[in-house]
Amino acid sequence: MRSPATARQLLRYLPVLPAVLLLLVFLAGPVLWAFHASLTDAGLTGRSARNPSWVGLENYQRLLADPVFPLSVLLTVVFVAGSAVLGQNLLGLALAVLMRRARPLVSAVVGTTVVAAWVLPEIVAAFAAYAYFSGDGTLNQLLGGLGLVRQEWLYAFPMVAVMLANVWRGTAFSMLVYRAALNEVPAEVTEAAQMDGAHGWQRFAFITLPMIRGSITTNLMLITLQTLAVFTLVWVMTAGGPANASTTLPVLAYQEAFKFGDIGYGTAVASVLILIGAAFGLAYVRLLREPRP
Amino acid sequence: MRRRALKTMSLIAAATVALAACSPDDPGASSKTLKVAYQKTDSFTALDTMLQAAKQEFEAANQGVTVELQPIQANDDDYGTKLALALRSPSTAPDVFYEDTFKVRSDVDAGYLLKLDSYLEGWEEWDTFDDGAKAAGRADDGGTYAVPLGTDTRAIWYNRKVLEAAGVTLPWEPRSWQDILDTARKIKANDPTVVPFNMYAGKGTGEGTVMQSFYELLYGTGSSLYDEETGKWVVGSAGFQDSLAFLKTLYDEQLAVSPAEALDANVWKKVFGEWLPNAKMGATVEGSYAPSFWQDGGSYEWPGYEQEMGVAPFPTQDGQAPGAVSMSGGWTLALGAETKEPELAFSFLTTALNEQNSLSFTVESSQIAVRKDVAADPGYLDANPFVRDVSALVSVTKYRPATADYPRISAAVQEATEAVITGTRSPQEAAADYDAAVADIVGAAKTVRK
What is the DSSP track for B174-199? Predict the structure, then answer.
């Protein structure tokens, strides 16, 4: 028999039980299933569709030998670093800082414009971005109107196009997070620094940034994981082409699993993607944990 | 308290089970339900019309049977994926479904399709189906697993206005690849703003690249993709390189669209909706279903297309016999392997494919008839002025080697064409890459040098 104290201790966890169950069924379940499938030769059709057999690490060996895989990992890292960590994050921070200084009207107009892209469903945003960057799209018409050289953006610079599109779509989130964080910085601290003779830039670097450090890490974690999983945007704009020049890992996983019907191999790619996401997540969690100065 | 929570939970679980048992698809009830899965899009509603009609007819004739139509709104690729996912589990597998001919073999391998031989014996109308089309539903074991709905062929579609302006004698009947290049150069010289002769290439257009472009070239050289007799994939053929070289010439001399346009997955919409109707393109290789886009109710209605467009068979490389080449695909109706009502499902299939329903479907979707009675019907022959020409190509047409490896092989071919038109590889290099890719996919033992 358990002591009453232990029972009470256990009882305390009862309210979170549904949440834990839901997490297990809908989050851990698919992850485990994907990992299991990646160790089999499961297919969408063909002999191994209904009764897949265990192949061990064969899919991962194939993955390492596949010339597209390193390219795809590199593109994914470039995509995340360029469009999330640098693009969305810095632009969002800059907008949030500038909006505090701007007139209310300007701030409201800019805020609405930026958030508009974020409110669009992903598929709509993807088609809008496709229409903007395509051969006779808006961007080229603008460039043509200014007498500048037109470019086949989706063909010549596919990664630049999808990264710009992702910055456009995702900046609003960082901006909102940073606006909230900046509002929390007490005015007295900044004023005290000013009294001590700190210039604007110094105040920002040595007072504001350290104080919103928690928000920065949380924001980085969220946008990194969101960007890692971006599929629709890339698929609609370039479908991974030309010649795999924009095949990020989610696109590669989709192609292998559904276009070629090789679910085992596709889930192996997806498992690698999960690992990369977990690595980023752990790094950010560590950053968050370190004692604040 | 913990006990009580568990009790409540088990009660809820029990209630869920009990309620589920009451749902209408309980097999023990007197009413029976047939699930029918098929594709429906904005531009493809012909099948929906046909199955709605068949449902009414069938339900009237079979009291107590409900036909549950489950249209899937998706393009061909996504439809295939969704169907395959539904077929994986017996609880979601439809009883009757719309199945691409090139998936039949691999889906039979997967055990998704019901063998129909014993049912077909008792169906006298089966004899009215064309023998070539019947083969499309046959699997490696010689059994028939699917009944064809219609088929298609590929040909050159040209804009008469553009060719006339360039001084080409009409009707245009190219006899060799050289004829095509000569005419295309003539059109280019006459009006550089026109795309003279487009052929798809690259991964953007997917199966379109191979079905409506590369295979017409490859099979016209006397080479082929797959050796049916030995069951091996052909590598190192001169025909493969020649075909790539032809595409390179078309794209290098700017006789086709620009490589950037070619790699856009939406390029075919511009071909049908913009360039041909606006006389901005001389000719392209496209399917016999082309008129379905232009006729009344099509996605790109074009009154007068009958007068402005012309059709010609795609010639062999040097005009060697049989003089023309074409590719065929097409779709079928099949039954789920685990259907609980095979008799009823087959009976529904025969209702859906009876003469009347087949005729209206074939005409509305600009298919080539697979039933002899439909093929002879004046309503079919006069549906548009091109029916006779494209139907005649059935005599020279080829089918894809639709094994489970095929999608990857097809992707390797598409990659080879992409590398050549973008200039990253020479035809020779791209062909060598393809050979290596094929050996990698199927294993060197399943390839043959020809």
Answer: --SHHHHHHHHHHHHHH-TTSEEEE-
